[in-house]
Amino acid sequence: MAQYTENELAKDLDNQDYKFGFVTDVETDKIPEGLNEDIIRIISSKKNEPSWLLEYRLKSFEIWKNMAEPNWAHVKYNKPDFQKITYFAAPKQSKKYESWDDVDPEMKETMAKLGISLEEQKKLTGVAVDFVMDSVSVATSFKSKLKELGIIFCSFSEAVQEYPELVKEHMGTVVPNTDNFYAALNSAVFTDGSFCYIPKGVRCPMELSTYFRINAGGTGQFERTLVIADEGSYVSYLEGCTAPQRDENQLHAAVVELKAMNDAEIKYSTVQNWYPGDENGIGGVFNFVTKRGICETNAKISWTQVETGSAVTWKYPSCILKGDGAIGEFYSVAVTNNYQQADTGTKMIHLGKRTKSTIISKGISAGNSENSYRGLVQIQKNAHGARNFSQCDSLLMTDHCGAHTFPYIECKNPSAQIEHEATTSKIGEDQLFYCKQRGISEEKAISLIVNGYCKEVLNQLPMEFAVEAQKLLAISLEGSVG
Amino acid sequence: MIEIKNLHANIEGKEILKGLNLKVNAGEVHAIMGPNGAGKSTLASILAGREEYEITEGEVTFEGSDLLELSTEERAHLGLFLAFQYPVEIPGVSNVNFLRTAINEIRDAKGEDPISAKDFMAMVREKSKIVELDSSLASRSVNEGFSGGEKKRNEIFQMAMLNPKLAVLDETDSGLDIDALRIVAKGVNTLKSADNATIVITHYQRLLDYIVPDFVHVLHDGRIVKTGSKELALELEEKGYDWIKEETQVG
Amino acid sequence: MEDVLTQTKFDILKTRLTQTVLPLSEEAKEKAQALLECSDFPTRRNEAWKYTNVNGLNKLLLDDSGSKSTELSIISKNAQRVHVVNGHIAKDQTALSGVKTSWTLLPELASEEPFDALNLLYCTAAIELNFDDLENKTIELVFENTCNSVISPRLFINCKKGAKGTVILNFQGTEDNASFINVSTYVEVEENANLSIHKIQKNGINAFDLQREYVNQADNSTFTMNTFPLSGKMTRNDLMINVNGNNCETFMNGAYTLKGKSHCDNHTTVDHKVAHCYSKELYKGVIDDRATNVFNGKVFVRKDAQKINAFQSNANILLSDTGTVNSKPELEIYADDVKCSHGSTTGQLDEEAVFYLRSRGLSEKSAKELLVKAFLGEVLEEVDHDDVRSYVEEQIELHFSA
Lengths: 482, 251, 402
Ligand SMILES: Nc1ncnc2c1ncn2[C@@H]1O[C@H](COP(=O)(O)OP(=O)(O)O)[C@@H](O)[C@H]1O
Ligand SMILES: [Mg+2]
Fold this sequence. Notes:
heterotrimer, A: ten-stranded mixed sheet, 13 helices, 24 strands, globular, binds magnesium ion
């Protein structure tokens, strides 16, 4: 009952327009648009990077130039013009803040509008926020507390300066710069992101969280996240995205790398609410993300995502179950409305013995949208006793949307057990009628039924996130039954 | 409370109700009986506002409003409740969540403030006792994995929570064993007052041993063909529906 | 040297084939040639051929070696039969009603698939089967492959309005046969018609068998396709069903038993274009040794094709450490009032069940056999033709006793 949020929901329903659609007027320090070696050198020197990192960027740029944009996903869009993107924008005052009082008031206001009032969160226990605005981290809290435990949680740039050996050792080992077009691009031009290291045997006592948003007009976003959970450690990491309203399409090509060493566990949750474009499919963010984790022996990585935003989403948080007994999980809700397109899913690569993976995917399509699940379950030769269970359900709200399921199942070991199930069906007329007979309006009935349908996934989210996710689902599906 | 005049209704071009008349006053219990396929559930569905049915003639006034002009939820806001013959399952939505949403929407429609969590939980505890519903059922998903009897008791529990003016129970007795039947009937009797009314749809007499009706109507071929007292139900039980059919044909 | 570089694998294959003597229209011929000109063998990059490589075709000798006289099984004694020996229609057969084997011009049906174009240009036999009554007669086409030849039949099966018919496509190869079998089958199921096709692919262990069925279903029709790839080095079946009419029923069943180094790939597509239809698909198989099985089932439900119920299931048992299973069941749905589901499972035999049977005195081998037969039995239950069912049962028995 505590997490019941009908009233908050009602408030949100009043404001149908994209609620985070505003632009903060902070002076930004931009470099000219376009992409070439010089631009990469400028980014690197502005960030005061060591030479190995500049070399890595230049190498990635070489690789990227020789790659073609992938076209196998079930999405259609106008390819971005990579020379029309500004690859670096940092708020002008780039000095670090000692305390919250030093933070630019306007920025604080932005955070308040985003619903993540840090002042409040500072008082509330549990959430340390590393706030990324236009690629550069401007505020971090709870650092000292984490420091006591030896936990490093900082912006990626800071990590490059303070912990270069750790970054150098792990960066690009999970998602190499040769992996795919967008990963190569990110490796060349990434501006900032988050870095997290949990030492051996440490259980991170709070949820670590990062909020991203796109701000300056026409600014590309190329975050890079690296989370390392050393042996026997545990961390729960939250990532949330909101973006202001824009007419031109904006590209978001992030790379997230997770490393769970022996017996470690990483829980990575995302609520993604990039601007989806308007009801006519104009504008919106392109979200082309590479997220992957490696699990060593008996380690566990759990991805949970609630995707309601973006004009185009292309995203497959994956697990390489390398060590024996490793566990990978993927829980996903993807909602598409109007002209949104999502092609999302996961890859579970079973290498070790007795590795286990679970995939629960709930797709909800409304309006004229296209929603695809694409997932790979691969059992390699030595993965004796591997197990996979996948359940992929699609719910259709109108007769002009599409719901698609493309599972790839590849098995090379006879002792593996793989089960895949998928269903596609319309939102239940009988269920709607039943709710209405009890006095519940159609909008609210839909929100109830959809939240119920997604329960298994929402239950995986930390509490604050679950509440926000429920709100987002309701907002995204307004007026969607056809 | 409710007055139905000359109601005609079609589904998929087939006429099911063919001029049905019925008037129910506050404080009364009416039983509607009739053979399978007579149109009993159709009547209940139309009163609740199911859209598949086409109403070709007639009118229905409920609490002074033209019922047929209202949406399903507006009817519910006015205090119309239907206990479904086949309650649907809503996976992942807990009973309490569902009911709290319903209660608050009804309150909102009346311009009242939402119920507090404390009052709501107290009410859940109180009302679940009436139908001897295990309180764990309240936190389970709506009807999901419920046995037939649990579903029916859950309908009466919801009725108790929503406290309607007019309750229409569609075959709430079917599929119940004698204990469950007694519980359901006890629930209905407890909720009965001078301000509300109940229409009990059934095709067995046995429920009427527990819920004593003021009037018994026989629905046949889309019309109420006979109205009587409780004794009519016994007569039907004894002789079946054939004599009614014959009688109406002659008539 | 230039030429060598631009030569495609089709160009190489073509040099070893003999052009058809059957009457083709110039137009059809040109179209097929043009299609082949701009095609090459599919590669991994081609999604539909991701797991299946046909390069081995160019290693087949195709020299017509082998004996011409071996006796091979027929399936249904009661059926009317047409014999096709090493790709060519046997000479001394009595004419059958509803069967057409001589042509003044071949029908111009063609697809965009290069192997279909290849089938047309190098066609060795063209047969049309017509069913026009309720008799439900069975016609069995027996393909006896005893030489290492090119077998390129083009089949046209028409089940007319309100008619009922059964076809058995019986491909039989001698044990070590190394033919290139390349079959295109065009099927029309007219209004209210009911057609069943049973396809048995008992090929020689070195044979390549590539088959395509293009099916159209009209209103109120029922179509059943049962596919049994039992042996062969490489078997690829593409079953494409367009459900163009309302109120149709479509059934697709398959059972496969793979061993050695065989590779089997079943691609099915059922395309629901209109409303109120039902389709059900069940493919099950057992994979042993170094064999590989690929399953790809697609269900399309087009916009406005409401009230579709479509079910799809693929289950595999992997018996060896070196076998591979690739399964890709797909749903692509553009209508909202539908109920579709698919499932895929891959695993080994239930050890508990094996143990249970052994505790009742069965040997491990026979316990496993029993369980495998029960596993495949679910598919056989769907087969309503007694002769076909008992033949396949027998073959499964043989498969395990060998
Ligand atoms: N959705 C429907 N479509 C077509 N006919 C219907 C539908 N629902 C009910 N009917 C028909 O209406 C008649 C009355 O049904 P119903 O009201 O359920 O009867 P009862 O509840 O009295 O047994 C029956 O003949 C039934 O077949
Ligand atoms: Mg009824």
